[in-house]
Structure formats: C-alpha cells, structure tokens
Amino acid sequence: MVMFKEELAEKAAAVDALLERYLPEEKGYAKTIFSAMRYSVMAGGKRIRPLLMMETFRYFQGENEKLVEPFMTAIEMIHTYSLIHDDLPAVDNDDYRRGRLTSHKVYGEAMAILAGDALQSYAYEVAAAAAADAAPEDMPRMAQAMKVLTHKPGIYGMVGGQVVDVELTGKPIPEDVLHFIFELKTADMIEAAMMIGAILAGESQETVAQIEKAGLDIGMAFQIQDDILDETGDEAVLGKPVHSDEKNVKTTWVTAYGMEKAVQDVREYSDEAVRILRETGESRHLSNDFLFALIEHMVGRKR
Amino acid sequence: MVMFKEELAEKAAAVDALLERYLPEEKGYAKTIFSAMRYSVMAGGKRIRPLLMMETFRYFQGENEKLVEPFMTAIEMIHTYSLIHDDLPAVDNDDYRRGRLTSHKVYGEAMAILAGDALQSYAYEVAAAAAADAAPEDMPRMAQAMKVLTHKPGIYGMVGGQVVDVELTGKPIPEDVLHFIFELKTADMIEAAMMIGAILAGESQETVAQIEKAGLDIGMAFQIQDDILDETGDEAVLGKPVHSDEKNVKTTWVTAYGMEKAVQDVREYSDEAVRILRETGESRHLSNDFLFALIEHMVGRKR
Hints:
Two copies of one chain form a homodimer. By secondary structure, chain A is mainly alpha-helical. Chain A contains 14 helices and two strands, in the order ααααββαααααααααα. In chain A, about 70% of the residues lie in helices and about 0% in strands. In chain A, strands 1-2 form a two-stranded antiparallel ribbon.
C-alpha cells in the first residue's frame, strides 16, 4: 500500500502547516517561550490525533473544515504539553524524544515547565476563540467540542492517568490499574479526537457515544502495540532507546499478559473499533478508506 | 469600616464554599492529585479575582449568578495553578506560601507539576461544561467569557509575563520590561475577572473594553502596592518573609522609581480605575459600594 504511506505523509505535512499557522510569532519580550513552544510542537510528531479528528469529521460528511482546524491544533498542542511535562527531570527524566533533545535539555527546566503551561493554555485559547467567533448555528456544536476538549485531557482523563503512572513508577502495577492507566493516559485523547470530529460534523449524542467507544478500543490497541514495540522494536524505528520505558520494574501489557495475548488483544480491540465505526455509518453508506487505513497503521498492521 | 471587613470575610467564605463544591472528591486511583489540588486551592487565598468577577457582574445588574459561578471557580483555579508552578524548585524555589508549605514540599515535585496541570485543565473543564450546557440565549456570552478566560492567563498574558520575570530573575529589569511584567503577570488576571463579570451581565463590547482598562489600572496599583508591602510590611501580615521576592538583584517598582513615586502611582492608577468604573455606570445610576470598597482594600487604603 504505497498509496497509503504517501497520503499519510501528505496529510501529516498539512497538519504541520496548520500548526505553523497557529504558532505564535517568535518576537517580543516573551519570545523564548514562543520558541520553546515551536521547538516541541514541530519536533516530528506523527499527528495521529489531529488526523483522526479530521478523518472522523470527513467520515461523517462534515462540511466546513474551518470548524475542525482550531481543534486539530488544540489537541496536538495539549498532547505536546503532556510530553514536555512527562520528560521533566522530576517526572520521567528523559533527555531525548523522537531522537531530539527534550525541552528542558534545550531551554532549561523552568522554561520547559512554562512551555508546557503555555501550550495547554494556548490550545484552549485557540479553540475558545474559534468557538466565540462561530456562526450562531455552529455555536452549540463548538461548545460541545470544547467540553470534550477540556474533559478528556483532564483529571478524569489524561492527567489522571499520568498521576497514577507516576505514582507507580518502579513498582508492580495490578491489572485493573494497568487498564485504568491505558484508558486515561492514552485512550482518552484518541476518544477526544474522534468525538470532536463527529460532534463538529453534527452527529447525534448517540453516535458520539459510539465513537467514544471506538476511540477507547483504538487507544487500547495503540498503547498495547507501543508496549509490544518497546519489547521487540529497534531504536531507529522508535526514536528512543528500546526498553527506555522499563527503568526499574516496569509493568507493561506484555509483562502482565505475555506477548501472545498482547498481540491478540491489539487485534481484538482494533477489530471491535472498526466494527463500531462501520456500524455507525452503515445505514448511510458512509466511507473513508483513509480513516480505516490510518487505524490499521496505528495498531501496527500496516507500516 | 468594620462593616466592609465583615462583608469581605463573608463573601470570601462563600467563594471557599463554591470552590469546595467544585473540587473533585478525593477518591479513586488518582486521588493523590485531587488531594493536591484541594491543598493548594484551599490554602487561604484572598479570593480577590472571583470576588471582583461577581461584584462587577452585580454592578452591571447581572441576573443569573449561576452563570458566573463556574467562571469564578475557574479563575481561582488558574491563579492557584500559576502559584504552584511559580513555587517549584526549578522556578522560584519557595518552601512556603501564605505561611503553609508549598505543594512540592508536601506532595513532591512531580505531583506538584501535575497538580498545576490538573488545576489549569480542570478550570477550563468547569467553565466549558457550563458553557456547553447553557441556555441557547446565554451561549454567545458564555463563549465570549470563555474566550477571555483562555486569553488573559495565556501566552499573551499571565504566562508571558511569568516567562519574562523568570528570565530576568537576579538581573536588573529595564522600566519598559517592568511595566510589561506587571501588566501581563498580574493585571491580566484582574482584567479577566472584571471583563467576564461584565460580559456575563450582558454588557456591550464597548463597556467591556472600558472595564478591561479599569482592570489594568487596578492590577497595576495592586502589584505596585505588593512591592511597597514587600519593602515595608512585616512577615506576619504577608505570610512570607519580607524581602523574599528580592533574592539576588530584584527590581521592584520601589527600587525602580522610589517609595514616594510608588505610593503616588498606586493612588493614580486606582483613582483612574474608579473614575472609569463610575463613568461606565453613571447614565444608568449603577452602584455597588462593596465593589469600590474592595478595590480600595486591594490597593491598601483600607485594611
């Protein structure tokens, strides 16, 4: 499938250009922070969350792509802020991410803390400005999208998962807690991306709830696949040392359930996600081949 | 004016109760973060921002106070997150605030970073949920309030000011940069509080712009007064060691302009704010004695 890889590269480049457009100009008294924001946002992310958002929007025949763009920007900035703070010396203490020095290695610890804060706040600023300036008929869906954008990365979502992950670093993790961490830390942001795509396309609460479930399944498959790659992958592919997530005792899906079950779980979760997605669109003959290929790519069946 | 002090204490206690109502319950896998959020939010803040918001709303004869409450909660949580991150070892490295141990001294550095992140994200979550669930006729003003709530604490506001402040720690600060820091780091949050009060009361863009200017003046007076107190106050009043803001070379309004001009500037900025506020309400005979007393209290004329 050479076509998919080319299309993916093209679409990811379009997201890069979108992010460039929204990033603040590096000027004025506070320009160091603008530079630090850009450094991490443009550090070669795969743009999976904004792509999932846009492609879900397209699957549901969303029309005005201008509504989605600020939310695509926002979710990537939220993802980036979480990585900057994850990498800090007081948290995971990582010097490299995607083969590049982490924010605090380049800008110092204080500025890396502020760069994370700045990206979180700017993400919400970009989305809230678009919501406030929306046409009256778009306002309810923009407000619903904003609600999801603030909920899923928050204390009952990504941050909550990160807290438990940090607290259990170096300790064995019980299975129920491992599920909790995967669901909150990884799946919630995938859910948010897809739900916002569906909401902005004008889908019903019922369909959005189904998309939330599909997002959860994709998120689980994606994170389990990450654990599998950490066990089997090579450094060049991952951009970080193999086993870098295994300082001290590190419970992963593979150490908890074994490789065979991990591989099977990736398949089951992703099959279920695809089934739900197809079901929501069946009666209306919806399609988006790229979206389904992207999901297969994320869970490692298509490279 | 014994009456004012009693009224202030009563109203601040009502804000405390409001915050208690919104703070997440300390249960579940991630309960450490809920505990850390509560520890800092309930650490005895003066609640100046939520009070200014509510009293500005009342001055403009706002009717449905339920609209304001989530934004009062949000702005106090944003203020608190900024204090937690300010106090971190990599930033100001303060062990005490308001006479209590800072977050990282109690919960450790990683958890303090996450507590700040959590408070920022939860602040936006509380406000965005209220905006999404608002009645259709309230939606535009809720969206405008959300826009201000995400803009003023952000990179062109509070975070931007904090960045410049951190970069210049221990170095002499030119006068234009000192103004920039005061405006962004302190005044922007005061502006946000008062603007949101006016917006939610249904005021026009023109009036909101005047309130923004009044908020700027109050913020400047408030921050200059803080520098004066740091020079003259005693530890019991301030809850932190006198001169604690003066590690190394520390440029303050007092060191830059002298005590006499600093006192005069507090008077001029606050007089101008009061003049603007009275002017916006004059033709409609608006009044709110408590609001004006609160402003005088903030700038140190009334204790």
